[in-house]
Task: inverse folding
């Protein structure tokens, strides 16, 4: 019989944050005895080798009644009642990543690796169709996107095969290696409609033809997460660091000396940067960092990762010398959505969750913020009175601020039209490992 998948997430590291300003303080977080993990692993194990913890059989586009078990240290899929197929999905959603795995598939059997699976729109499949006429390394999504009739000649029968799938870009770029041989390199046409922005990873039992006793097996599944980016604008190394392509217009804001920023408030301490990653430190009195230059119309993209009870945010077009950057310009929230209310005993406004325009516009997309410990990606566009915010490839909102009636703060018409870009520092109370509670990387700006 089918073994049920536990609902517990396989990997949950503590991180997130709430934005507030010196003039509008959020409730102080109550100290907690638990220690927090500051540094996530470079590779995330998706399978513990013993159970289906972190995996589910529903919540993708192709749910079914295939039978999933763990046998000899491998996820094992067979046809279900009436030769039913189906997918086993990661409980968490992923956008861009490197996925490594080993697979052994009985002959004949049709399987595959699926990416960005969600009920609301299409994802894609790297085919592992190990049958006469089947294709290994094709790209399929409710129809062929790219066929690979020669790929099967490199697949080992009755043996373990090593695979690697790399998925990057808003319009996904899919690459597939089999035992270090690259078989697939497919770019979805830019702007192609009908595809989901982010989704689950799945392994498949196709169903319909496979003998009941035959199986597809997967082990050693691990993932290295990569940032959300447009492949026309950036290249990405294996560590998840972006480099702007020539002509993209993006320029970096981070360097080792933080020469493009100045600290404000208190003793001016509380930030450190190694040239690639900026840390918001627990110790120090600075309220925020502000760019030395003012910006009017621009696109800002950045990654952030925070610990439990962390409080931060992104200031846009903030007026210099004003004590409240969130309201002299505006602020996009960064918050521990998962624990803030519990830890503080408070109730958040809808416009206080991560991705909200502080005081004015709720994020409105539950589940878009990744679980604690993972990097999240923002892309924020300011042009005239219009501001657009995207989190992890999903558009949260696109509003004309001239038409807003903020619940907190004055009307946007009376706020600065040009000003600094800033990062807020509001260190949480309570014990945690390390000296920092928030991290920022891949911070780039493009003037419009």
Result:
């Amino acid at each position: 019989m089918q073994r049920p998948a536990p609902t517990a997430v396989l990997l949950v590291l503590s991180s997130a944050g709430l934005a507030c300003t010196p003039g509008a303080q959020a409730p102080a977080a109550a100290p907690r005895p638990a220690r927090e993990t500051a540094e996530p692993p470079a590779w995330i194990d998706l399978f513990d080798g013993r159970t289906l913890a972190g995996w589910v059989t529903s919540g993708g586009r192709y749910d079914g009644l295939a039978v999933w078990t763990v046998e000899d240290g491998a996820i094992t899929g067979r046809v279900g009642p009436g030769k039913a197929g189906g997918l086993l999905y990661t409980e968490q959603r992923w956008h861009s990543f490197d996925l490594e795995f080993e697979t052994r598939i009985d002959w004949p059997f049709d399987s595959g690796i699926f990416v960005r699976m969600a009920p609301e729109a299409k994802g894609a499949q790297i085919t592992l169709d190990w049958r006469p006429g089947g294709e290994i390394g094709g790209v399929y999504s409710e129809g062929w996107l790219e066929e690979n009739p020669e790929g099967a000649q490199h697949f080992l029968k009755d043996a373990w095969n090593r695979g690697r799938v790399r998925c990057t870009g808003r319009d996904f770029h899919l690459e597939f290696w089999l035992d270090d041989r690259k078989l697939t390199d497919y770019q979805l046409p830019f702007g192609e409609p009908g595809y989901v922005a982010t989704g689950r990873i799945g392994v498949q039992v196709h169903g319909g033809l496979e003998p009941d006793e035959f199986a597809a097996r997967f082990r050693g599944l691990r993932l290295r997460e990569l940032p959300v980016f447009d492949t026309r604008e950036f290249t990405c190394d294996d560590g998840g660091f972006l480099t702007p392509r020539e002509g993209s217009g993006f320029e970096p804001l981070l360097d080792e000396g933080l020469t493009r920023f100045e600290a404000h408030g208190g003793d001016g301490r509380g930030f450190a940067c190694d040239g690639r990653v900026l840390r918001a430190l627990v110790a120090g009195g600075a309220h925020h960092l502000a760019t030395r230059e003012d910006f009017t119309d621009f696109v800002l993209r950045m990654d952030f990762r925070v610990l439990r009870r962390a409080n931060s945010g992104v200031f846009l077009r903030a007026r210099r010398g004003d004590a409240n950057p969130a309201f002299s310009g505006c602020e996009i929230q960064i918050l521990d959505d998962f624990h803030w209310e519990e830890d503080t005993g408070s109730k958040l406004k809808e416009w206080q969750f991560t991705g909200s325009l502080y005081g004015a516009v709720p994020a409105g997309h539950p589940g878009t913020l990744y679980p604690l410990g993972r990097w999240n990606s923002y892309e924020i566009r300011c042009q005239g009175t219009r501001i657009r915010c995207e989190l992890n490839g999903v558009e949260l909102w696109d509003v004309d601020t001239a038409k807003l009636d903020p619940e907190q703060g004055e009307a946007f018409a009376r706020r600065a039209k040009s000003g600094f870009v800033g990062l807020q520092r509001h260190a949480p109370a309570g014990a945690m490992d390390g000296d920092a509670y928030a991290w920022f990387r891949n911070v780039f700006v493009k003037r419009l």
